[in-house]
Amino acid sequence: MDRLIYTAMTGATQALDQQAVVANNLANASTTGFRAQLANFRSVPMSFGDGSQVNDVTTRTFVLSATPGSDYTPGPISQTGNPLDIAIQGQGWIAVQTPDGNEAYTRGGNLHVDENGQLVTASNLPVIGNGGPIAVPPQAQVTIGKDGSVSVIAAGDPPNAIALVDQIKLVNPDPNTMSRGDDGLFRTADGNPADQDPNVQIVSDSLEGSNVNPVAAMVSMITNARQFQMQTKMLQTADQNEQSANQLLSFS
Q1: Strand (E) positions, 35-161?
Q2: Domain Flagellar basal body rod protein N-terminal spans what residues (predicted)?
Q3: Nearest CA to 216 among 9, 2, 1, 21?
Q4: How far is residue 136's CA from residue 126's CA, in Å, rounded to a whole number?
Q5: Which strand (E) or helix (H) includes residue 243?
Q6: 107 burial level (CB within 10 Å; 0-12, 13-18, 19+)
Q7: Where are the domains of the chain?
């Protein structure tokens, strides 16, 4: 009986965890540059402390979380007409500076210039250039090239007085070496900054949408809910079996 309780408990727990991942994906279906989270699970036979397994492994197989990952499939790109909106074409990332001064990566290209004259993301994280955070002159007209070059025309200057101020750091590390943080940003597994990749190209005046499929996410939510109901039903069955066994013992 305890076998049924514990196997059902692990199944219900992982169904809830997977539901949380799917719900987070669905909540970010319209978030710029969002990468869907993946929830993977695996069956693990129960083993004792010394590493030996019980004989009836088929009735002692628990559910455990596997290494979580992300879906790196590019999302749809749409034109916005905003010169500070950029989208990565294909694979690649935009380097930003986190509040602790370290480097992280995002696909969210909805940029703007803050009150300090820095080019920042929608979360007000400074965009990193060749020499650190990118700063632009006040009231300047900013344009961003395919290679991430940031050019400006200062206020009052003629249209041909274009000046190159910096270049956005665009990287493309191996996805297997990247991990998602709680803040939604990605970082390299070893914590070291990734090298700039000149092959990464951007699309100006455009934004990349989330790669979450809302229909598939809704189907997953329904499936997870049914799996959780099935596991809780098994727990109720185990409780009923225990009560019946107690009654039989009381008659003996």
Answers
A1: 37-38, 41-45, 61-65, 69-70, 77-79, 86-89, 93-97, 103-106, 112-113, 119-120, 128-129, 132-133, 141-144, 149-153
A2: 5-35
A3: 21
A4: 12
A5: helix 214-251
A6: buried
A7: 2-72+212-251, 77-208
CB 39 within 8 A of CB 24: no
Amino acid present at 171: V
Digitized pLDDT (tens) for each residue of the chain, 252 residues in all: 456 777 777 777 788 888 888 999 999 999 999 999 887 666 666 654 445 455 444 455 666 665 568 899 999 999 999 999 999 999 999 999 999 999 999 999 999 999 999 999 999 999 999 989 999 988 889 999 999 999 999 877 787 888 999 999 999 999 989 999 989 999 998 889 999 999 999 999 999 999 999 999 999 889 888 888 888 887 888 777 777 777 777 765
Please tell me the distance from the alpha carbon of residue 84 to that of residue 99, in angstroms, as a whole number: 22
Say what the pTM is.
0.79
